[in-house]
Specification:
With about 240 residues, the chain is an alpha/beta fold. Keywords: CBS domain.
């Protein structure tokens, strides 16, 4: 069983710019495609940075209108006013290093990266670090928004069937608001641990409530198990 990979939800039609792309062309691309940032790539399609609207805004001096109030950065970019920053290309203002995610990474990893770095989109790269797509917060949200019924079916199929090799009805599975409750009896303690871990990795699962019991605790050393049996026999 595998969690949904980033490559399965990413957008492959990616607008990019190069290090030498003029800032006016960067601004035009951002506006035309209604995005907040663009990957900056080299000749081999490797991501060397990201340029965003905030990068452009920081690169411009706060030139004033005739009445003394600051001009919007888009106006300043095309105005050719005196005092304009020396930044001229995407390479001058891009953020480096770029935060990227692998196409084979689980969507949860992309979510952690977005949250940790405060970004809404991530360039997706292949095993050779070449750009293959873009993933957004909306893409990730759609990937994990599953109904309780969808989650229950995934648990019965992937946890009971694939992980434990049991029939789909071998355990009681209840799902409410993404919280999975597993109830029943398994042969080994290690099976219980495996079931809980596998259920927690399913997309859309918020938490797993373990109400499972086991017949044999195979997680303790053999000698300790024998001693435990002797202790029980002697009582």
């Amino acid at each position: 069983m595998k969690a949904t990979e980033v490559g399965a939800v990413m957008t492959t039609d990616v607008v990019t710019v190069e290090r030498g792309t003029p800032l006016k062309d960067v601004a035009r691309a951002l506006g035309e495609h209604r995005v907040g940032g663009l990957p900056v790539t080299d000749k081999e399609d490797r991501v060397i940075g990201v340029v965003s609207t905030s990068d452009l805004a920081r690169s411009r001096p706060r030139a004033a209108r005739p009445d003394g109030t600051p001009r919007p950065w888009r106006v300043r970019l095309f105005s050719g006013m005196p005092g304009v920053s020396r930044a001229r290309t995407a390479g001058d203002v891009m953020t480096v290093p770029a935060v990227t995610v692998g196409a084979r990474a689980p969507v949860t990893e992309a979510s952690w990266l977005m949250t940790g770095h405060g970004v809404e989109r991530l360039p997706v790269v292949d095993d050779e670090e070449r750009l293959v797509g873009i993933v957004t917060g909306g893409d990730l949200l759609r990937a994990v928004l599953r109904t309780d019924g969808d989650i229950e079916r995934a648990v019965r199929r992937d946890v009971l069937g694939t992980t434990l090799w049991l029939t789909p009805r071998a355990l009681a599975v209840a799902v409410e608001d993404g919280v999975v409750t597993l109830t029943g009896r398994l042969e080994r303690r290690s099976d219980v641990d495996a079931a809980v871990r596998a259920a927690s990795r399913i997309d859309g699962v918020v938490a797993v409530v373990d109400q499972l019991s086991h017949r044999v605790d195979d997680t303790i050393p053999a000698r300790s198990a024998v001693e435990a049996e002797e202790t029980v026999a002697g009582t």
